[in-house]
Predict the structure.
Amino acid sequence: MAGDSGSARGLHPDTIAGVALLLLSAAGFWLTTGFPEVPPMLSQNVPPTFFPRLVLGLIAAGGIGLVAGGLRAPRKTMSRLRPLVYVTAGLVVLVPLSIMLLGTLATVFLLSLGLPLLWNERRLKFIVPLAIGMPAAVYLVFTVALEVRFPTGLVAALFG
Amino acid sequence: MGLPGLEFAAAVFTDPTVIGLIVVGTLVGVIVGALPGLSSSMAVALLLPFSLYLDPIPSIAFLAALYCAGTFGGSITAILINAPGAPPAAATAFDGYPMAQKGEAGRALGTATVASVTGGMISVLVLLFAAPLLARVAYSFGPPEYFALAVLGLSMLATISGEARLKNLIGGCLGLLIATVGIDLTTGVDRFTFGVPELLDGIHFIPVLIGLFAVTELLTQAQHLGRKRSVVTLAALKLPSLADIRSVMGTILRSSGIGTFIGILPAEGSTVAAMIGYNEAKRWSPRPETFGSGAIAGVAGPEAANNAATGGAMVPTLALGIPGSATAAVILGGLQVQGLRPGPFLFEEQPALLYGIFFAMLFANALFLVIGLIGAKVFSRLSLVPPALLWPSVLVLCFVGAYGLEQSMVDVWVMIAAGVLGLGLKRYGFAAAPIVMGLVLGGLVETSLAQSMIIFDQQWAGFLGRPIALVFFVLALGGIAGAPALGILRRMLSGADSKNVS
């Protein structure tokens, strides 16, 4: 079961979120300084930095508000993320890599097999039909009917 | 006075494809709504890429049916297992589940169905009449008015939840920031693209939506995996009597009005409407003490309101191009991806499409009267599908949907990034809906602001000479600062009172 943990260094979560937003605003502002200069005639005095900087300014103001509110607020704990969340997120990140390597249908098969097992489902009478049915459904509906061209992967390219 | 746009109803009711898609959309909507964790916003976001293979009328009719039915579907699991299938049904569980525990599940489900259908139908009728009127008013709007209107829409995010007021506004700004990625249309300069050519056209709306709604929810499900749910047995589905319906008709009509009004307000969706509908049902009830322990009006109130909000939310979405709710924002994105320009001119350019949507929503509401009354027992079984078997299918749909739009792996990475970021934001109290609203409105806000600044020769004071824009700004300010100002005033007054007492 998820336990509770204090937020980093005892800071209120809003303070942490506010600081992150301030950093995001600063980074965003720094990136806008790299936008090419555009002559005022062309930009009609509305340079490409105008709107992003306005929005970044609003985000920074909101961040300051959160920091201020968080510093005044009583301490609050956040529930710790279960390891399963990190593993699931890792699996999600692996999917596009697997698509590029093994191809889409093989990846869908592995995903339909792997995620239930990862989530502690052991009833093969449900998992196996799902793992076979999903790639078949994707192939029939999307590849055949809707003509979506999915990546076939490096392995298929090597042997194709 | 007859129904406006009746001549276009034929486009819906004589086309078997459209009829079939509305039926499918309604069925899928009820199923998705009934599955805890899957919301109508997520379903519309997931199915939007596939609907783009269709013509605009069947595509948007399908999504609109899904929207209406998804909002209703959430009530089934709220009543039977005390787990609202979608946030708008949360208030339904307050009295629906106690009714089910007392063996009155059928009565609760039947009441929810009748209330939902009545609320939905009333709101669509309002939509039929109000949207063209609102569009007519909006014909005279120029860029400054549109900018002010979009600001008003974003400011309403502050009123969705008092506690998360500031976070919702920040979320809206984050959406606006994401919308700036890509080539600036005025100057041709590329912004925040990091040398990735696929980002020159901007970050596509659909992968972000799928990531924020579906992938984030998948990771949230991983956090809550293993929670047991108890299901109320439904041996016989005993429907509410006519006397039951008669006793709550006042509540249904009142909540339908409330829901429609709340839905019309930009950004305010079904969840807010349902909560207000529940509170008002309790306030007007002769026996408010029964609420929370199985009051039939406690089911009728929120259900009528949350479904009425769906039609209401489509009014500003279609007439002004300002989404009335998160799901309406997704549908608005769908219209944009179809190459259409939501707003007043749509009534001149695409009347068949608009009235097609209206009649599709009416038809969907009529359909789930049948589906709700006959199929509730079957749909309730769906809640028993283990998450470990349900979510792999959802994840596959996420990947296929994100990839299928442009057939680009960059979109898949964008979806994953949005999903992981969405989980982080959710943990810190930021909701997905404001980000989506900001993202959808981003283009309109930037373009209308830039055009206004050009018109006003870079003088912000130029807005002062535009009365309609000024009204919108004042309303926006009221939306943002109104509640905190009232809170401060109340504290000051109570402080003065306590001093007087001492």
Observations:
- Chain A touches chain B through 66 residues (CB under 8 Å).
